[in-house]
Amino acid sequence: MRDELTAREAHGLPIPSDVARWIPISEKHAADIYEKLYTGGPQQSQIAVGPLLHLLRDNVRHSGDKTAAPHSPRMHLYSAHDSTLFVLLIALNIYDGIWPPFAADFRVESYRDATSNEKYVRLLYRGKVQKLPQCQTELCSLAEFEKAISEQTVDSAGRAALCSLPETAIRQHSSASAS
User: Fold this and answer.
1) Residues 65-75: pLDDT tens digits?
2) Count of C-beta atoms within a 10 Å radius of residue 80
3) What is the rounded CA–CA span in Å between residue 22 and residue 27?
4) Helix axes of 142-149 and 42-62: crossing angle, nearest 10 degrees
């Protein structure tokens, strides 16, 4: 129901008044369910966004490095559903308690210090700079960024291996990680 109402609202289509009052309630319920699903332990995040974090990390590592990646583009653009963005925000510990609105954006900017050659990462969600809790400042060193996402980052093969685990093994691991 939430997706139907959000799509109608975004495209200027009419929403019956007796249904419109349910939009905030449905968004709150959807957010509560997703938050419970993906804060149980690292494996849930790994399955949901582990490969995306792996790709983002690799792209930041190789940005501006013409020797390692001579044909690397200066910009990468991805499109994702709100539910993917939701889990990404949870995995990064920057979820604000609100379901990502229609057409929300998330940016990962890469910087390099001209003197030290050290790389830095800056995250923006809906135009606002986000500070990862594990980073000293909003401009996070690549080493801090990699450490912050290391628990959730997994390549496609690792995700496939996690998906083949019995559900009880994932729950047991998540319970052990949370304690």
Assistant:
1) 766 666 777 77
2) 15
3) 9
4) 160
